[in-house]
Design brief:
1028 residues; alpha/beta; 40% helix
């Protein structure tokens, strides 16, 4: 729960009524208050007060004492106009109050994410009803609807007396209820019990003072999921919008009133075709119910983000990853320490080792792991490396599947090839996981307590690795140069393909440059072979050392320092594990206790949300490693991130993004309200994409070696989505890795869209023909998945069937891809499917040995327009041709894949300024961003290491010079770190030296002058005059 002062401050800023409990003369009175004035000196609050128990009237300018408020909670479905003078006072930068505390820095960002988290939760109906005289048209027309006494009492009592408050202290169960008023615009009534799915609504707020309902928005918002309450069986079921409106028709909801008739028709048509559960008695209900929508939040997000805000406001306590997220560049330099790197086995490659090396040194590192490139293996090796370098580690993700995978992999480790390895990692999270952890710790202690520990083993191994690290780091630096040369050669080769016959001189020039670069590249050909000799690790010795060091950690539990923890874990068994788990969770919620626990178990594995039970925000862990970070929402991810001094985000933005329920229009409204930049957009970003957009100092590291699929299978994704950067390391076990089964010969026996009965028949035939194959079935559509389950699962219960979302992170030897494209498939449905590149990428890359596509090829050919990029048509042609079809590349916005967008507001400001200047003074000049240094001086060589690795922020080109683009000057945007950090200054000197050696102009712009139009215009005029 938030501090009372913070709750009151939020009410002032957001124009809320606030529920309080007020203790006077040992008597507690409940009020609703709207704050008008704060008297700091006398510690009093002048407010409009309201108590329905005694009167339906509001008492104006009622005075209460701050210190007598024992409980406060904002009612966010209400409205009280805060006086302008009070609002201006609390928003001043130098405002301070001993009663109200305000963290002005990044406060709006925090409030934005709190609101997003609440509205991204699945709602359900608390109460609803019709109120005479009120409907949506009336509310829209008037904006404000005055309530009579009877109407007001109904709504006010619902708001104020619905639930009893919880205790003020923070409970172990952090679940919280969020309530909001709305008016129904369109609901779906389901079954004989008339359960309602509120599909579309408009938000309302209740103004107590003026006894009226206020229309909070003219926009209609949708619920992508809704909880149906079957009160007789006390069962709640989550229903998805996909049950009622097909995926390709959901765009209709974006312009709701205009498409209302069509939306109703789609719902009825889509659900009256088949005898499916819930579909027999679906009705449209657009009666104007006034509804109290509730959302059960998994955690107390106000409490959690209030603590995050507090550590942000204290610069000395702010974890470095949070500073990076808040775009404070002065702390982003890598450390110069060479950390010894360790691996769990010999299955690694140079990209994985390079990624770990960067992660150990950087406050923030981003590892792009395309399908099958060893993301889990990299994380395991990073955990081991961190452990050997005395770092505490928090390993997290958005759900349990990747966390279970990592923890199970750790538990499979052996020492002496036969004994279970004692490893100081513990799996926490849900209460079930904590219960298992209690039993696991007790089991480990019983094994460890009698072992004879030899403490010097790990120390000796570390010293051996340190000696090898210097050579390894030098080699990794050379590998970076090698990659830069390969990138440059590829870019020049692509460039020569675009030259016309009149460009012979340029073609010769480019060819000479390519040859020069290839000659330079030849010096680095054997880097991978050289690298392996520095990774010669004796794993038997390593695991023996880990086993005994962990035993030594566990033996400490019997010491007095750990007595409280020892009391919790001792004698744990199946009978008492639930009570013991509650005690452990409470113990770990205290930061001091958690740090004590980390002395025994320095590695904790948990889900993002469950990290709220691990102490409070601050630098508790040395490093936070997040798996599947491209699927993690920003709010959930910031909970573990706020507890670490470094982060290592592992993910792939080319695969599926987080599942977000928050309506996009509502999100835009929140962004406008809080003035949120696009880089922090909750709906369009995962935590991975947000960080990579915000942080320009730490680039992504690409894992290039692919170990899962046969080369013919992964080649489609490699060429289409990964700029051909992946190196396939596996030959599949099938002689025919690609197979196309055309289903046009099968009769379709249903009129329902997004279902192909013919494909199901063809799939059944395939399964019968291949009884011994390990098969998985994937489809893009929920309806087809359900039909497949009805017809396949009864006979073949062991074959997993799912939509693409359910299969990310999974794999099978053989994947059967059911497209559900038939003669009933509309152009709109096909367009939705063909543009869903992440879906197709994930589907294709689940197959290890064989990918079988089931589709009506003629229908696909008729649906495609051959104009836009068509992922589905290309996949069809690729599989049909057995991999011989030439795939078109989609250039992704990714530094690791060879492209990099302009990320920061300052860079965008600078480019916008320069473009405007050039449009006035010289329209023949253009600007390009993130240009490799070596690409500017292709006919020269330079011994400077930055020549092959560095980039210019902007480069100006004259596009009229002899029919070619002539380089005019480069531009660098320098922030504070360029004037305060020695390492950055050294890099700047090297870049300047390169420009001086080649008599080339380098123009430096301080970040604060990015939008100084006149200053930059004068400088550009001078530069252009000198260049002519």
């Amino acid at each position: 729960m938030l501090d009372i002062g913070k709750v009151l401050l939020k009410a002032i800023v957001n124009n809320y009524w606030c529920k309080i409990e007020y203790k006077k003369d040992n008597e507690v009175t409940k009020f609703m208050i709207g704050i008008n004035y704060i008297d700091e000196k006398n510690r009093t609050i002048k407010c409009d007060a309201f108590n329905l128990m005694y009167s339906a009237d509001v008492q104006k300018n009622y005075v209460i004492y701050f210190d007598k408020i024992i409980y406060a909670e904002n009612d966010e479905g209400t409205y009280h106009k805060t006086p302008d003078n009070l609002l201006e006072l609390v928003k001043k930068p130098d405002f301070f109050s001993s009663m109200l505390r305000l963290n002005v820095s990044n406060d709006d960002l925090i409030k934005y994410y709190i609101d997003c988290f609440k509205l991204d939760s699945t709602p359900y109906i608390s109460k609803y009803g019709l109120i005479k005289g009120i409907d949506d048209d009336v509310l829209l027309k008037n904006g404000i609807y005055p309530l009579n006494d009877e109407q007001f009492k109904i709504l006010a009592s619902e708001s104020f007396y619905k639930k009893e408050r919880k205790e003020k202290k923070r409970e172990l169960n952090l679940e919280k209820i969020e309530r909001n008023y709305c008016v129904n615009v369109l609901a779906i009534e389901i079954g004989s019990k008339k359960q309602k799915y509120i599909l579309a609504y408009r938000p309302l707020v209740l103004d107590f003072e003026h006894k009226c309902l206020i229309s909070a928005s003219e926009e209609v918002y949708k619920n992508s999921e809704f909880i149906l309450d079957n009160s007789t069986n006390n069962v709640k079921e989550i229903m998805s919008i996909n049950k009622f409106i097909p995926e390709d028709k959901q765009y209709l909801l974006d312009d709701f009133y205009h498409n209302l008739k069509e939306i109703k028709d789609v719902i009825l048509d889509y659900n009256n075709c088949r005898n499916m559960p819930y579909n027999k008695s679906i009705k449209i209900d657009d009666l104007p119910y006034i509804i109290n929508l509730e959302r059960k939040l998994a955690i107390d997000i106000d409490y959690e983000f209030d603590k995050i805000n507090k550590v942000i406001s204290n610069e000395e306590e702010t974890p470095l990853p949070l500073k990076v997220f808040l775009d404070e560049p002065d702390i982003r330099l890598t450390k110069r320490i060479n950390y010894p790197i360790f691996t769990v086995n010999d299955l690694y490659d140079i990209d994985q080792i390079n990624a770990i090396n960067i992660a150990m040194k950087s406050p923030a590192s981003y590892i792009q792991g395309p399908p099958g490139t060893g993301k889990t293996q990299t994380i395991l090796n990073a955990i081991l490396t961190a452990l050997f370098n005395n770092k505490t580690v928090l390993v997290t993700s958005n759900n349990n599947i990747p966390m279970d995978g990592i923890y199970n992999a750790i538990n499979r480790l052996k020492y002496n090839d036969k004994f279970d390895l004692l490893f100081p990692a513990i799996r926490l999270g849900s209460m079930e996981n904590v219960e298992n952890a209690i039993l696991k710790i007790n089991q480990m202690y019983e094994i460890a307590k009698n072992l004879n520990v030899k403490e010097n083993r790990i120390k000796d191994i570390k010293e051996e690795r340190k000696a090898a690290m210097k050579n390894l780091v030098d080699l990794l630096d050379k590998n970076d140069i090698k990659k830069s040369l390969e990138y440059r050669i590829e870019a020049l080769e692509n460039f020569t393909k675009t030259l016309n016959l009149e460009s012979n001189l340029m073609s010769i020039y480019a060819s000479d440059s390519i040859q020069t670069l290839k000659n330079e590249l030849s010096k680095y050909e054997n880097i991978t072979d050289d690298f392996t000799k520095y990774m010669n690790i004796n794993h038997a010795q390593l695991f023996t050392a880990i086993n005994f060091e962990t035993a030594g950690r566990l033996q400490k539990l019997s010491k007095e320092r750990y007595s409280e923890l020892f009391l919790i874990i001792s004698d744990a068994n199946e009978a008492n594990k639930k009570e013991k788990a509650k005690q452990l969770r409470k113990f770990l919620s205290n930061t001091t206790n958690l740090k004590l626990f980390l002395e025994i178990f320095p590695v904790i594995i948990s889900t993002n949300l469950s990290c709220t039970y691990l102490g409070e925000p601050g630098t508790i862990f040395d490093i936070v490693m997040m798996d599947e970070a491209a699927q993690c929402s920003i709010t959930n991810a910031l909970i573990p991130i706020s507890r670490g001094n470094q982060i290592m985000l592992v993910g792939d933005a080319q695969q599926l993004s987080p599942v977000i329920l928050l309506d996009e229009k509502l999100n835009k409204k929140l962004m406008n309200k809080y003035n949120i930049p696009e880089e922090y957009n909750y709906v369009s970003n995962s935590i991975y994409t947000a960080y990579t957009k915000i942080d320009v100092c730490n680039n992504e590291t690409l894992l290039c070696s692919h170990y899962r699929c046969d080369e013919k299978i992964i080649s489609f994704s490699n060429k289409k989505y990964y700029n051909n950067k992946l190196r396939c390391k596996r030959k599949g076990n099938s002689d025919v890795p690609l197979e196309y089964r055309d289903t046009s010969k099968y009769e379709e026996i249903t009129d329902e869209k997004n279902i192909s009965t013919g494909e199901v028949k063809a799939i059944e035939t395939y399964i019968k023909e291949h009884p011994n194959e390990q098969i998985g079935i994937i489809t893009p559509f929920v309806k087809q998945k359900e039909y497949l389950e009805e017809n396949i699962s009864k006979s073949y219960p062991n074959i997993p069937i799912g939509t693409v979302h359910a299969f990310q992170g999974d794999q099978q030897n053989v994947i059967l891809f059911s497209t559900a494209i038939t003669n009933k498939t509309s152009k709109g449905t096909y367009n939705w499917l063909k543009n869903n590149k992440e879906l197709i990428n994930v589907a294709m890359s689940r197959a290890k040995d064989k990918f079988v596509m089931f589709a009506n090829k003629d229908k696909i050919s008729k649906l495609t327009d051959n104009k836009d990029d068509d992922n589905m048509k290309e996949l069809s042609d690729y599989v049909y041709s057995n991999g011989n079809y030439v795939v078109k590349n989609i250039s992704p916005v990714s530094y690791a894949l060879g492209t990099k967008q302009l990320n920061t507001p300052s860079e965008k400001d600078l480019q916008e300024t320069f473009n405007q200047i050039l449009s006035v003074i010289d329209k023949n000049c253009i600007i390009k961003s993130e240009v490799p240094v070596s690409s500017i001086f292709t006919h020269f060589k330079d011994d400077n290491s930055l020549f092959y690795k560095g980039r210019f922020d902007l480069v100006i080109f004259d596009k009229t010079y002899k029919g070619e683009e002539r380089v005019v000057a480069a531009v660098e945007l320098n922030g504070p770190e360029h004037y305060s950090e020695e390492q950055v200054q050294e890099r700047d000197k090297l870049k300047q030296q390169i420009c001086d050696n080649h008599h080339f102009t380098l123009y430096i712009v301080k970040r604060e002058y990015a939008r100084d139009y006149r200053r930059n215009k004068e400088a550009l005029i001078e530069i252009l005059n000198k260049s002519k």
